[in-house]
């Protein structure tokens, strides 16, 4: 049964793999045998993730890129291909948030968040999926969405909109790439304390979140590993594409 989740011989590219959630997922890939490229704007943080993976016996390398720049993504794709020959798994885990009220929102801020959370992932898929198709490499693309993509949350207007768009991108590309043997899915995490939401986690908001989460707690980054490894494995999820997999402690099932 463990062979279902064996990623030995696979190369995973973790865009945003230096983030709290991205690094946990990337570590999960490495723990199951994948060679992992950790891609982030901050090369120092990316290297820290690589060091952690290597200390546990995994294989990884740090790369620097900015998802809001096509040229930067093209450059890092070439660097990763030179290192590994190609890739089988792409994790899209960059993220940017803001609590600016709607009527105070400027379009520069809107564009900045959209460039990272939505446009950047579209461009990443154009570059990395195209090369997978050219190399005839079947595989998996995993996008990190959010509970705010289906239930808009107060104080995170642009972030919620960007993640709703990401869900649509996920399902569109699942249809687009299925004939090529590339599966595209998204994980919808619940509330995991991370860089993007720390600034808005006031005591009152935490109380409200807990009331809306049947499991009555935050998730831990490690709790995303199972879902990600499932979706990364060609054996375990061979017929799963276009799915939006919730890992949210029941948040999406709660009403009153």
UniProtKB/TrEMBL annotation:
Protein name: Gluconate 5-dehydrogenase
PROSITE patterns to which the protein is assigned, alphabetical: ADH_SHORT
PANTHER family referenced in this protein's UniProt entry, alphabetically: 3-OXOACYL-[ACYL-CARRIER-PROTEIN] REDUCTASE FABG, SHORT-CHAIN DEHYDROGENASES/REDUCTASES FAMILY MEMBER
Keyword match Oxidoreductase: yes
A GO molecular-function annotation: oxidoreductase activity, acting on the CH-OH group of donors, NAD or NADP as acceptor
UniProt keyword annotations, A-Z: Oxidoreductase
Highest classification ranks of the organism: Bacteria, Bacillati, Bacillota, Bacilli, Bacillales
Family according to the record: Belongs to the short-chain dehydrogenases/reductases (SDR) family.
Pfam family of the protein (one): adh_short_C2
Coiled-coil regions listed in the entry: none
An example Gene Ontology biological process: bile acid metabolic process
Organism (species): Paenibacillus solani
